[in-house]
Amino acid sequence: SVDCSFSRGVCDWKQDADDDFDWNPADRDRGDGYYMAVPAFVGHKRDIGRLKLLLTDLKPKTSYCLIFTYRLAGERVGKLRVYLTNKRHASVWEQDKGKDERWRTGKIEIFQGAETTNSITFESERGKGKTGEIAVDNVMLISGLCPED
């Protein structure tokens, strides 16, 4: 498994230069590292911010599981989407406001065909809200299928 979390991860994260705003590090409540977040007040409605995870060593014809924690906090805060490079125009995962503002776990199965995925993009789309944030943390990539809860 590969630890791509932001405090001590070994992965190559890049801000997209062609989007409307950047994701920023935010301190965790208990002071044990940080996560990446977009505050609700950044940008205009429907503005997009993309954070890209560059992958170099995924083997073709192999299954992987992307596991991450996320939070959408605040009224009308917006949407969080995940894209894989080889599925560029359709998100493979999308979430808008949940029942509450707790951290939740997202899981995405990545099946490598002959064409391998060389990046995963976390995209936040700003909503109408003025408070809250869209946040991502604890990004892990493990080989094999995603475990059941």
Automatic annotation (TrEMBL):
<dbReference type="InterPro" id="IPR013320">
    <property type="entry name" value="ConA-like_dom_sf"/>
</dbReference>
<protein>
    <submittedName>
        <fullName>EGFL6 protein</fullName>
    </submittedName>
</protein>
<feature type="domain" description="MAM">
    <location>
        <begin position="2"/>
        <end position="148"/>
    </location>
</feature>
<dbReference type="InterPro" id="IPR000998">
    <property type="entry name" value="MAM_dom"/>
</dbReference>
<dbReference type="InterPro" id="IPR051560">
    <property type="entry name" value="MAM_domain-containing"/>
</dbReference>
<dbReference type="Pfam" id="PF00629">
    <property type="entry name" value="MAM"/>
</dbReference>
<dbReference type="GO" id="GO:0016020">
    <property type="term" value="C:membrane"/>
</dbReference>
